[in-house]
Amino acid sequence: MSSAGRLPTYFIPHGGGPCFFMDPPMGGPGTWDRMADFLRSLPGDVGEKPRAILIITGHWETTGLSVTAGARPGLIFDYYGFPENTYHLTYPAPGDPALAGRVADLLEDAGFPTELDAERGFDHGMFIPLKVALPDASIPVVELSVRRDLDAAAHIAIGAALAPLRDEGVLILASGMSYHNLRGFFANDTRIEMISETFDAWLVDAVCQPKASREAALIDWETAPSARICHPREEHLIPLMVAAGAAGNDAAVHAYSDVVLGKKLSGFRFG
């Protein structure tokens, strides 16, 4: 935590399906090692243990906003065609109904209608990275959906509405992927590799600018080089907007940089 007691906020990669729990690994040995190392580093990077986590993933889209409100959410195995063992993973982190209510109140006060969903479980955008980062599953977790319209400016404003949680011991994690073109991911094509590098360079520069410039760039992300090739649909990029909005004036650090299956990937810490 900072000297002021404010927790940072992060945009983290969650990998490809249950990639960290497959033998042999998808893509071969070592493919996901650096990403796993980054996720394992998060507790030490944060410092003091958060009282709870609010996670936003690209795997839960709703018309408005919705937040998990159950005390013991189950897991949703929303990936397909993977080894049988990956459908028996566990992550028994408790929910936090009181935090869910606080999240809904903050969002409602900012003009974003939000539903409490006591039945919704945790999707793999939550439990896969957290099983690597925090395997003891002892910290309560609440998951927030993204809006189906995937409006970048709205999600930055959603993040800004949630910023007070950082002073309340809540770690805000945005879980997605800075490159998410599944067809391109598994294509052995050097042109696609160069495209991912070009977009990633733009993204790092945009995110690491001061607040006003950062937000303007992210709102206009579709004009970035090869933006729609790297994100044919932006549900895995939109969580970054929430993290950036929650960051306020805090600077960004390019906390994770890697090449996976030939594609450049990044993660960020704010504050």
Automatic annotation (TrEMBL):
Keywords: Dioxygenase, Metal-binding, Oxidoreductase, Zinc
Keyword Zinc among record annotations: yes
Pfam families xref list: LigB
GO terms assigned for molecular function: ferrous iron binding; oxidoreductase activity, acting on single donors with incorporation of molecular oxygen, incorporation of two atoms of oxygen; zinc ion binding
InterPro entries recorded: Extradiol_dOase_DODA, Xdiol_dOase_suB
Gene3D superfamilies linked: LigB-like
Keyword Oxidoreductase found: yes
Sequence ranges assigned to domain Extradiol ring-cleavage dioxygenase class III enzyme subunit B in this UniProt record: 9-250
Cofactor: Zn(2+)
Family per similarity comment: Belongs to the DODA-type extradiol aromatic ring-opening dioxygenase family.
Name the UniProt record assigns to this protein: Dioxygenase
Native source organism of the sequence: Acidisoma cellulosilyticum
